[in-house]
Every structure is written in C-alpha cells, then in structure tokens.
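Figure caption, in words: inputs first, then the predicted bound structure.
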Amino acid sequence: MAAPRAMALCLIEVALLIYAAAAATSYSNHTVGGDAGWFFNSTTNKTSADYNAWAANQTFNLGDYLIFNTNTNQTVIQTYNTTTYNSCSMDDSLDTDTFQYDGGNNEFGSAVVISVPLTIEGTQYYFSDADDGKQCQHGMAFEIKVTHGLGLPPSLNQPPPPPYVPPPEPADQAQTPPITVVTSPPSGGMRTSANFSWLLLVLVLVSFLA
Ligand SMILES: *[C@@H]1O[C@H](CO)[C@@H](O)[C@H](O)[C@H]1NC(C)=O
Ligand SMILES: *[C@@H]1O[C@H](CO)[C@@H](O)[C@H](O)[C@H]1NC(C)=O
Ligand SMILES: *[C@@H]1O[C@H](CO)[C@@H](O)[C@H](O)[C@H]1NC(C)=O
Ligand SMILES: *[C@@H]1O[C@H](CO)[C@@H](O)[C@H](O)[C@H]1NC(C)=O
Ligand SMILES: *[C@@H]1O[C@H](CO)[C@@H](O)[C@H](O)[C@H]1NC(C)=O
Ligand SMILES: *[C@@H]1O[C@H](CO)[C@@H](O)[C@H](O)[C@H]1NC(C)=O
Ligand SMILES: *[C@@H]1O[C@H](CO)[C@@H](O)[C@H](O)[C@H]1NC(C)=O
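Bound structure (2-acetamido-2-deoxy-beta-D-glucopyranose present):
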C-alpha cells in the first residue's frame, strides 16, 4: 500500500506545482532593461541593454506595467503592427494599432519614467523611433507576448485601446458603472474557485485511494 500512497502524494505535488506555475498571483512591474534602463548612446550606437534578451526572461501578464526609465532622447512607441515595428517608424502607422507614450517633456536629455499598462493579450512590440529610426535599427526595439494571468484589474478594465461602448439608454447610465465594476471581480473569483474545486476533487479522490 505504500507505493500507491507515495505515488498519490507525488501526483498532488505535481498538480500543485502546475497550478502555481499556471496562475499568476499578482501584477508585476517590469523595468525595461533592468537597472540599465532604456537608453541609446548615439556616439557609439549602443543600447544600454539587450532588450530582447531582457524580455525573453520575463513573464508578461495582463494588468502588468512596463516601466521605462529613460530620458527624452529616446521615445517609447507601442505597436501591434509588425510592419510598423520592422520599419522603425511611426510615419505610416495607423492610430488604431500604434501609440506613442511620452513623459510630456520635450527638452533633450531630461530624465523621464514612462509607465505602460499591458491591456491586450498577445504579441506586441516596443521601439524608439528617435534619431530617424537609427536607435531602433541599432536595438532599441523588443517584442513581448502578454498572457492572460489574472486578467485586467478593475482599474484598467476599460482602457483606451479597446474602445468603451457607452450604454444605449441615457437613463441606464447612472446604474451601469456600478454594475460593471461589480461584475468582473466575481467572474475572476468564480474561475479561481472552479480551479480550487478541481484541486479539492483530486485531493479527495487521492485520499480515498490512499
Ligand atoms: C506599478 O506601476 C504603476 C504605474 O506606474 C503604479 O501605479 C504601481 O503602483 C506600480 N506597482 C508596483 C507594485 O510597484
Ligand atoms: C556614449 O559613449 C561614449 C563612449 O563610451 C561616452 O564617452 C559618452 O559619455 C556616452 N554618452 C552618453 C550620453 O552616455
Ligand atoms: C552608427 O550608425 C549609423 C547608421 O545608423 C552609421 O552611419 C554610423 O557610422 C554608426 N556609428 C558608429 C560609431 O558605429
Ligand atoms: C533570468 O534572469 C535571472 C537573473 O538575472 C537569471 O539567473 C536567469 O538565468 C535568467 N533566465 C533566463 C532564461 O535567461
Ligand atoms: C500595419 O500598418 C500598415 C501601415 O503602416 C497598414 O498598411 C497595415 O494594414 C497594418 N496591418 C494591419 C494588420 O493592420
Ligand atoms: C541627448 O541628445 C542630445 C542631442 O543629440 C545630446 O547632445 C545629449 O548629449 C543627449 N543627452 C543624453 C543624456 O543622452
Ligand atoms: C483556472 O484558472 C485559469 C487562470 O485564471 C483560467 O484560465 C482557467 O480557465 C481556470 N480553469 C477553470 C477550470 O476554471
């Protein structure tokens, strides 16, 4: 009886590990390039970090932020369009798939911190189009894949990119925002409890076996 019992315990551990790995437990802020930040030296044509290598070592989830520690000599362009990304330029880009984030300061070399919330799942790209694309061509560019994780937190639930469609009846408007805010946490909670009940079921079955 000892062997099946050990095996059952092993299965529980594997189930718990898989669960822990699959479920994000909180939102993260990812500082782009780590301590090196988001900088380009236009004398040497060198980036301060290898951004694709940096990105490959992170897990990006909905509701996380990218934090660009930089100065106004670099830009932060977000795009969902591979053509725009490969061109290193915003010139022919569409307003619907490409966005520039700026710290609101136009003076050369002023320190800025730019926070970009991740609000859409899937592949997206970031680059600096400064110096007529030279920065991007020399590595101020990277790709990330955003996974679902916990889903969007209420604070980011109606971000600008997927446009908010107002309710048709003006009379309903007063009631709609509270309803929207209340709806999303329970649906997240139900998913969590569904997952936990599955785990519980495994635990119960296993204790019967053992
Ligand atoms: C992450 O960044 C956002 C935007 O700057 C900020 O509001 C939030 O407090 C940060 N969260 C953590 C855990 O640092
Ligand atoms: C760029 O690199 C050169 C050579 O390493 C260095 O002298 C210069 O200070 C750097 N410029 C900036 C803005 O970091
Ligand atoms: C930097 O790159 C540009 C082209 O993007 C090139 O003309 C220039 O010579 C390069 N400078 C150095 C120091 O490599
Ligand atoms: C990710 O970064 C950590 C800390 O720098 C390092 O120990 C680890 O090997 C890296 N992982 C990958 C897959 O690059
Ligand atoms: C990407 O942007 C280009 C313009 O730069 C546009 O012609 C093209 O249709 C866009 N691609 C998609 C998939 O939207
Ligand atoms: C920013 O760019 C300007 C103009 O190219 C240059 O003179 C200055 O040294 C740069 N500053 C930093 C901090 O990179
Ligand atoms: C378990 O949780 C994950 C992540 O929240 C979710 O994608 C999945 O649908 C859930 N599974 C069940 C059975 O609810």
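Residues 1 and 35 are 54 Å apart (CA to CA).
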